[in-house]
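Journal club prep, shared notes

We agreed each person brings one worked example of a sequence with its structure written out as tokens. Mine is Polycomb group RING finger protein 6. I'm keeping it raw so we can talk through how to read the token line rather than staring at a rendered picture. Sequence first:
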Amino acid sequence: MDCTEARLDRQLQDIVYKLVINLEEREKKQMHDFYKERGLEVPKPAVPQTAPSSKGRTKKVLESVFRIPPELDMSLLLEFIGANEGTGHFKPLEKKFVRVSGEATIGHVEKFLRRKMSLDPACQVDIICGDHLLERYQTLREIRRAVGDAAMQNTT
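Then the structure, token by token:
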């Protein structure tokens, strides 16, 4: 793996911290010692977000690595089918799956793909589900109702 492809995986890191006793504390101490030995300022730890509670007080909210917000209720499997000659250069997608709101439109998905793949604005992007060419105005929830379970993939 190239170093440019390495990135932090918070979910995996949280799992490892829960499995290996005192690992998180040891790593924090090593980082603190590293910066102190070199006379550098020790970076501040990330502060949890605060959210108002029902009684008007604020409480600390720590994101659970396994909880998915209810508004992100659709998972999309993104597969590149092909391009016409002369389409130009584009970046392959880093991730095959993406979770989005059912209220997202095909236009939103197209915009996401254009940005992630660095596509030229003149490049035509067609998005299909099963045998259906989808329209920009259609929401993902509408598509699920219209095409039914036949065009949906079950990932279990």
